[in-house]
Specification:
This is DUF488 domain-containing protein. By secondary structure, the chain is an alpha/beta fold. The chain is built from seven helices and five strands, in the order E-H-E-H-E-H-H-H-H-E-H-E. A five-stranded parallel sheet has the order 3-2-4-1-5, sandwiched between helices.
Length: 148
Amino acid sequence: MSNSINLFTIGFTQKTAQQFFDTLVKSGVKRVVDTRLNNISQLAGFTKRGDLEYFLRKIGDIEYVHILDLAPTKDILDDYKKNKGDWETYENKFLALMRDRQIEQKVSPQLLDGSCLLCSEAKPHHCHRRLVAEYLRDKWGNITISHL
């Protein structure tokens, strides 16, 4: 695998719809890979699954795909969010989950090149989309990650 993969990540909170879609279009994103466990929650606003798929196609001719294998389990998420768990524990559990699921076998470099991993967190520091991107970079070694 000599070709470098350009992988973007974005969170939708603290962004207006205009900021969100303009950022994706300007970055040349070809596909949004939804890594959320729940992509139909009311909290999602303009990023509820059906709406998001429509907006991406209409605004930027961007493909949409939801890959549950890249999402945390409800248990891992609840421990962190609801039970105020610490980030390190979440990170370790989530990375173990990615290893168990062997996500590097389930997604292809072709699918991810020019794609943008989506989750809700505004910043990449404490979010699983960064962990997914870095995990795959560690496995494949040829990924350039850009957090939008």
